[in-house]
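Hi U.,

Before I forget, here's the chain from the pilot set. I'm dumping it here mostly so it's searchable later in email.
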Amino acid sequence: MSQNKSIHPVIFAGAGPGDPELITLKTIRLLREAEVVITDRLVSETILETYVHPKALVLHAGKQRGREGSTPQHIINELLIEYALQGKKVIRLKGGDVSVFSNLLDELQALNKYRIPYEIIPGVTAACGAAAYAGIPLTARAHAQAVRFLTLHKNEIFQPAYWKELAQTDDTLVFYMSGNTTAELVKQLTDQGIGRDRSIAVIEQATTPQQKVFSAPVYSYEREFGNRNYLSPTLVIVGKVAALHETLKWKAEIETENEYYFKPITKNKAEEVRA
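Structure:
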């Protein structure tokens, strides 16, 4: 990659899944040096308030499925290019890890077109953070052979043969961004004959003070939680390991109803970020 010495590398950094203490030391150092921070919705406000320089420009370029006002990807790409070409030190801060179920590829390709250099700093991904804070070892011996990261925005992306394979595997299944499709997810797996020794854990707002875990055997899910609407973000774990939550859970849950840790997207957020 050809580099212009007057242009600083754009930093792509993961902020972790929610708990602000899960951010890496390297990302903290880079945030303190940044002049422009373009942040996702799923980044703790504590991180922004504590580690970002007071004079830095912070742009909230968040997305939330089904919410009007989410920032279009092309605007985020334009912002990265615009401030980088001005010679600013830019950080693109994403929730969790930057390489797992994010639009990192789109943003890297946009920078490549202008030969803008970049660095990628990993973070604690939601699957690992949620599982740890729910007391669920994702690859516990005798419970799982491997772990798979998936997402289920729309059911049509999975063919029936793949649902059958998922129902038969001994792997732990972790579904990102699937809170609104959890009932359909369970239906597909049970229709394909998933084992009765499999459980499900739905982890709402993982690693935050508002974390809640809803766990049950897969075949009991519809009866116990089928009508529940989950707060974003929600992560779903399916497999033998999910049952371990009941005996290994360690994080206390506070009694709250419909309280968001991450502020929902507002209608005019896209306009604000470009203003």
